[in-house]
Amino acid sequence: MNSEIIQKLIENGMPSASIAVSGGEGKYVAEVTSDAFEGLMLIKRHKLVYACVNAEITSGELHALTIVAKTPAELAKA
After folding, report:
1. Domains located in the chain, CATH noted
2. Is the pLDDT of residue 1 over 90?
3. What tens digit of pLDDT does each residue of 17-36 get?
4. Mean pLDDT confidence for 41-58
5. Most buried residue, 19, 20, 59, 77, by CB count within 10 Å?
């Protein structure tokens, strides 16, 4: 498992999102920006992203994924 594979998995599940994945050795950070997060609480945003990589987490291929989930408006403010 590497950051490129994780990014592709999230892109496949959230094709309109902007995604950047970094990290290695089983510990990754996914920065995901999407309009789909509008109006959602943080836990629901994370669930959307985790759904894209659930099989890899369940199998143990992916050990730790930190998610930073923002809307485009939130990213613009930061």
Report:
1. 3-77 (3.30.300.90)
2. no
3. 999 999 988 889 999 999 99
4. 96
5. 19
Element (H, E) at 29: strand 27-33
CA angle 69, 52, 12 (to 5 degrees): 95
Q: What is the pLDDT of residue 25?
A: 85
- Rounded distance, CA 32 to CA 42, Å? 12
C-alpha 62: how far from chain center = 13
Exposure string for 15-30, b = 16+ CB within 10 A, e = fewer: eebebebeeeeeebeb
Q: What is the CA radius of gyration of the chain?
A: 12
**Helix residue spans in the chain (DSSP H):** 3-13, 42-59, 72-77
